[in-house]
């Protein structure tokens, strides 16, 4: 068994921390990796009481929930209904300037390789689009602290809040990450190949961003032929159709896009947004 002989990559510790949000938050705080202020509540009543310690808070269920699910934004004095008695993470709301992420890969020998960080735009807790490169804001340093502390092997995606030029960790993903999909089009090596090389102990290479690149998710709508044709009229695009059954806000595919400058890239992404989500224009 891989677990018995120590060859499970990424290791079990990094996966166990993701089973419940409060375990991840406590781990980050204990080891000095900056996160927003938070409390752990054992039930919904305690969560509401603790949330009033902040002028505004985000209450998150500890188990389950992702892409904005299981999260409640609350102002002091409000009394929303929280479903069921369970463990909650009560976070101070951070009026961040923007969100960003970094894809990092760590080998069995402990060498870390970083992809260029990306700016992220989220809609109701779900990544809508992102684009690289972004400035670092200390993300590499915090990523290395986490990967080394966990003795991690493989690719990890780490999401950050950026406020006044500094970064704090929102959460990490012990796997390839949605915000790194653009590396398939814009980088010398994709996050997927990086992960396989690290896990199998194959030689790694320093990832290089070959062009400005980004990604927009296709949420909740079928990727039909008409949509594909309109997307492909935008130069530098590549469509990934997941073949999933459509449901509201489900990730059904994404579009990678490349450009010669950040300005051109953002223009293309916003054009794709108008094509994919005309109802929001």
UniProtKB/TrEMBL annotation:
Single Gene Ontology MF annotation: ATP binding
BP GO annotations: purine nucleotide biosynthetic process
InterPro entries linked to this entry: ATP-grasp, ATP-grasp_carboxylate-amine, ATP_grasp_subdomain_1, PurK_C, Rudment_hybrid_motif
Keyword annotations: ATP-binding, Nucleotide-binding, Purine biosynthesis
Keyword Coiled coil: no
Residues of the ATP-grasp domain: 25-200
Coiled coil: none
Gene3D superfamilies: ATP-grasp fold, A domain (3.30.1490.20), ATP-grasp fold, B domain (3.30.470.20)
Protein known as: Phosphoribosylaminoimidazole carboxylase ATPase subunit
């Amino acid at each position: 068994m891989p677990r018995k002989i120590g060859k499970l990559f990424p290791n079990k510790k990094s996966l166990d921390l993701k089973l419940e949000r409060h375990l991840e938050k406590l781990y980050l705080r204990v080891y000095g990796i900056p996160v927003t202020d938070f409390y752990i509540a054992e039930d919904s009543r305690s969560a509401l009481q603790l949330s009033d310690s902040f002028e505004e808070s985000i209450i998150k269920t500890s188990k389950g929930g992702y892409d904005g699910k299981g999260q409640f934004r609350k102002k002091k004095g409000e009394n929303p209904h929280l479903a069921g008695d369970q463990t909650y993470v009560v976070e101070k709301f951070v009026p961040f300037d923007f969100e960003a992420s970094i894809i990092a890969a760590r080998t069995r020998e402990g060498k870390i390789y970083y992809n260029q960080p990306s700016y992220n735009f989220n809609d109701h807790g779900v990544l809508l689009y992102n684009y690289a490169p972004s400035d670092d804001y200390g993300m590499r340093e915090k990523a290395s602290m986490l990967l080394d502390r966990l003795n991690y092997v493989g690719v990890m995606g780490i999401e950050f809040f950026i406020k006044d030029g500094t970064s704090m960790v929102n959460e990490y993903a012990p796997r390839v990450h949605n915000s790194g999909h653009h590396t398939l089009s814009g980088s010398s090596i994709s996050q997927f190949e990086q992960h396989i090389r690290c896990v199998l102990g194959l030689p790694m290479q320093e990832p290089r961003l070959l062009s400005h690149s980004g990604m927009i998710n296709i949420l909740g709508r079928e990727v039909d032929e008409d949509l594909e044709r309109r997307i492909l009229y935008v130069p530098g695009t590549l469509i990934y159709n997941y073949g999933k059954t459509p449901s509201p806000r489900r990730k059904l595919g994404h579009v990678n896009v490349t450009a010669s400058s950040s300005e051109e890239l953002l223009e293309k992404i916003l054009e794709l947004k108008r094509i994919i989500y005309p109802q929001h224009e």
